[in-house]
Structures are given as structure tokens and as C-alpha cells.
Design goal:
globular; binds carboxymethyl coenzyme *A; mainly alpha; 3-stranded antiparallel β-sheet; 6% strand
């Protein structure tokens, strides 16, 4: 971090406090307030961390005003066109694009860790048969620390590496088995002859009774969805993983915490909520009614798949996703899809509406992803698990970065207390 001697001055009453200015490689300067409490006896107040950086990171950069997303400096649009998911995983984990030999070695390591410990099946079977796959994933990933004892020591770099590879490799198996379990079909084991996305599709859609051939169009589309979701700097679930990890918790527990956070409809759960909303709207003529509801302050309804904390121009992932939706539905011969029509018209109307323009609300990554996943044959309950398996590499890269960052401490926010001041206990008879 290239920090000069520049400082910002904060005046509180008659006290002036110097706050060092930290310089990033790109993006806005950051004020170092670590000594603020010691020097000024004050805290800062920032629920939702809208103005607070909680770490330094070299992994992902977002410029929300320019609609730019970079993985280790590479634009997402270029990666979506030229790269593939496992290469992006390598890039996110290790910081550089791999050589051909490094990529081959990495792919082989991931491929050879895709099977789950056989006893984990019993863990799946403990869930109710109609459990949401996200509930199953949260539980099963948390339980991995009970099955893989040789990769839970966070102070051993080799164990951290093994845990990372295990999670990237096994997450598709866990997500696919959560799905199979929810529909009462037998688990399908991973097949090492298939690539990462093809293997996931096979584990989701193959049945022992019939031959299943992975459609290369669908496998490429799935790979692209995974790339677009792979990391997104300090979003809610990633911050959850970092916060959980800051106490020294094992990596499986930390990623399970991230999955739990991702499930919420304001975050990864938005893809399921968005498709359900598009279905509820049903036909183009009902769109104005839903736009009016989204604008009504007294109605809690929000347009799902719209808006973002950081992107205030457009979400570059949504642009690629929209293109991909057109391609996939075209290739599958279902361009006439009513949900896609509603989505496109809703986007058009919202983008011309003063409310959405003034609040800088644009479609986000979740707006079009559900349409592609539905066309592939996934039920809505699988949308967020697919997000989770794609984001695993981002979580684990950020977790590894945190563990080796000498400046990181246990995450422990302060508060502005607004409750009762000290008072004496009142005996029950006199209350
Ligand atoms: N529909 C209608 N109004 C909206 C929407 C929306 N989707 N999103 C934000 N607004 C309004 C909001 O009511 C507020 O209005 P006002 O200033 O009058 O109170 C203003 O826009 C600013 O919104 P905010 O809630 O303060 O913004 P935020 O940065 O806290 O929230 C968000 C960002 C993504 C949680 C929010 O836009 C939202 O809930 N969107 C719908 C859910 C969604 O699609 N989430 C996926 C995000 S991208 C993928 C991911 O992160 O997993």
C-alpha cells in the first residue's frame, strides 16, 4: 500500500485528530480511523458499512459508477468471453492467470476431489425430504469439518490449500445431491471425464435408468454463470465469511456461514425471488401495476433483481447475463418464453421511469440468471445453491487472503448504545 504522509483532519470540539490517508491501487482513498477511539474517544457510525472499508484486498475491484468489475485486474466481460470457470478460480485464488501446465495441474487437483466422503450421504438423509437445498447445503458444508479433519488447521498453509481445493471441488456435488435429495432421486456420483460445469449438470439431471448426455451449449452457459458469480469483493456473504474466519473458525464453518448469509432475498436469494416475481407478473400488461407497487413507500414490495449497493450505473454481470439468456433460449428454441418477454419489458419500462432513474436502479446479475437456469431445467429452489457453489471460490480466496494478512484482527464492531442506562433490579412483586 503506497501510503504517503497525507492526513485528513477531524475536529471534535477543541481536539484536532489527524487521520492518515491510505492510498489504494485504484479507487477512492481510505481514511485510517483505527486510532480514532484511542485519540478522540468517539466511534464512527455506519450501519451497512456504506462508507467503511473493513480490509485491504487484491482480489476483486468494482467501480460502481463506471459499471466495472475486475477479477485480479481483468474485466469480467473479457473473462466471460475468453476464459472459463476453473481458470477464473485459479486467477482468484493465486492472483495470476495460470500457464497451461499450472492449469492442467489445478484442474486435475479439483477433479480428483469431487467425491464426498461416503458417510456424508447419511447426513443428507437426516434432512426432511422436502428441505430447501440451501438449508441442506448450509448444514452439509458446516459438517465437512467433521469429515475432513486433516484440513481444518488454519495455521497450516498446506491444510488451508487442501481445504480450498476440497470446497471448490465438492460444492457442485453437495449442491447436486441437495437437489437430488429434494426430488427423491438417487445421488449421482461425479464423473472425472466431464468438465466442472458438465459434471454438475450430470449430477443434477442424470438418473441411473437412462443415459444422460451433457449439452455443450448448456454446459458453456452454466460455466459462464459460475464465472459471473465467482467473486464480488466485500459483499454481505463474503464479509460474513471473513468475520467468521477472523475468530479462527475452520474454513468449512466459515463457508457455511457465507452460504447462510447468501440465502437472503436481498443477496443471493434474489435470483429465486426474481423469477418468482416475473412469474407472478405473468404477462406484460400487468407490469405497470408492479412498477407502481415498487414505487409505493407504503408497500414493502421491491423489484427483485433491481438495484445494487455498489453499482449505480449498470451491473456489468447483468449485461453478459442478458446476452447469455438470449443465446441459450435461442439455441434451445424457446425464444418465445413469456418470462423472458416480461423481464425485457419490465427492464425497458423501469429504465425509463423517473423513480428508477433518479435512484440509479438498474437490473443486477440476478435479473436474467433465473431465466437461463429455468430454461436449463432447474427449479427456482436451485438458483441460490448455484450462486453459492459459484461464489465458493471467491469466499475461499478472500478467507485465505484474510488469514495471511498481518493487519487483520478479530472482527468486532462497536455500537451506539441507545438502551436504558444503569438501573437497579426490581423485585417481581413490585413490577
Ligand atoms: N425496487 C424498488 N425500489 C428500490 C429497489 C428495488 N429493487 N432497490 C432499492 N430501491 C429504493 C429503496 O427503496 C430506496 O429508496 P429511498 O431512498 O426512497 O428510501 C433507494 O432505492 C435506495 O435503496 P437502498 O435499499 O437504500 O439501497 P441498498 O444499497 O441498501 O440496497 C439492494 C441494495 C440490492 C439490497 C436493494 O436494491 C434491493 O433490495 N434490491 C432487490 C433485491 C436484489 O435484487 N438483490 C440482489 C443484489 S445483486 C446480487 C447479490 O448481491 O447477491
Amino acid at each position: 500500500m503506497a501510503n504517503g504522509s497525507e492526513t485528513a483532519k477531524l475536529t471534535i470540539g477543541d481536539k484536532v485528530i489527524d487521520l492518515p490517508v491510505m492510498k489504494p491501487s485504484v479507487g477512492p482513498d481510505v481514511l485510517d480511523i483505527r486510532k480514532l477511539y484511542a485519540q478522540g474517544d468517539v466511534f464512527t457510525y455506519d450501519p451497512g458499512f456504506t462508507s467503511t472499508a473493513a480490509c485491504s484486498s487484491t482480489i476483486t475491484y468494482i467501480d460502481g459508477d463506471a459499471g466495472e468489475l475486475l477479477y485480479r485486474g481483468y474485466p469480467i466481460e473479457e473473462l466471460a468471453e475468453k476464459s472459463h470457470f476453473l481458470e477464473c478460480c485459479y486467477l482468484l485464488l493465486y492472483g495470476e492467470l495460470p500457464s497451461a501446465a499450472d492449469l492442467e495441474d489445478f484442474e486435475s487437483r479439483v477433479t480428483r476431489h469431487t467425491m464426498l466422503h461416503e458417510q456424508m450421504q447419511y447426513f443428507f438423509r437426516g434432512f426432511r425430504r422436502d428441505s430447501h437445498p440451501m438449508a441442506v447445503m448450509t448444514g452439509v458444508v458446516g459438517a465437512m469439518s467433521a469429515f475432513y479433519h486433516d484440513s481444518t488447521d488454519i495455521n497450516d498453509p498446506w491444510q488451508r490449500e487442501v481445504a480450498a481445493i476440497r470446497m471448490i471441488a465438492k460444492m457442485p456435488t453437495i449442491a447436486a445431491w441437495a437437489y437430488k435429495y429434494s426430488i427423491g432421486q438417487p445421488f449421482v456420483y461425479p464423473k472425472n471425464s466431464l468438465d466442472y460445469s458438465g459434471n454438475f449438470l450430470n449430477m443434477c439431471f442424470a438418473v441411473p435408468a437412462e443415459e444422460y448426455v451433457v449439452d455443450p451449449i448448456l454446459s458453456r452457459a452454466m460455466d459462464r454463470i459460475m464465472m459471473l458469480h465467482a467473486d464480488h469483493e466485500q459483499n454481505a456473504s463474503t464479509s460474513t465469511v471473513r468475520l467468521a474466519g477472523s475468530s479462527g473458525a475452520n474454513p468449512f464453518a466459515c463457508i457455511a456461514a457465507g452460504i447462510a448469509c447468501l440465502w437472503g432475498p436481498a443477496h443471493g436469494g434474489a435470483n429465486q425471488a426474481c423469477l418468482e416475481m416475473l412469474r407472478e407478473i405473468g404477462t406484460v400488461d400487468r407490469i405497470p401495476e408492479f412498477i407502481a407497487r415498487a414505487k409505493d413507500k407504503n408497500d414493502p414490495f421491491k423489484l427483485m433483481g433491481f438495484g445494487h449497493r455498489v453499482y449505480k450505473n449498470f451491473d456489468p454481470r447483468a449485461t453478459v447475463m442478458k446476452q447469455s439468456a438470449d443465446e441459450v433460449l435461442g439455441l434451445l428454441g424457446i425464444e418465445d418464453n413469456e418470462t423472458l418477454k416480461v423481464a425485457k419489458e419490465l427492464e425497458r419500462i423501469a429504465l425509463e421511469d423517473e423513480y428508477f432513474i433518479s435512484k440509479k436502479l438498474y437490473p443486477n446479475v440476478d435479473f436474467y440468471s433465473g431465466i437461463i437456469l429455468e430454461a436449463m431445467g432447474f427449479p427456482t429452489s436451485m438458483f441460490t445453491p448455484i450462486f453459492a457453489l459459484s461464489r465458493t471460490v471467491g469466499w475461499i480466496s478472500q478467507w485465505k487472503e484474510m488469514i495471511s494478512d498481518p493487519e487483520q484482527k478479530i472482527g468486532r464492531p462497536r455500537q451506539r448504545y441507545t438502551g436504558a442506562p444503569r438501573r437497579s433490579y426490581i423485585e417481581i412483586e413490585t413490577r
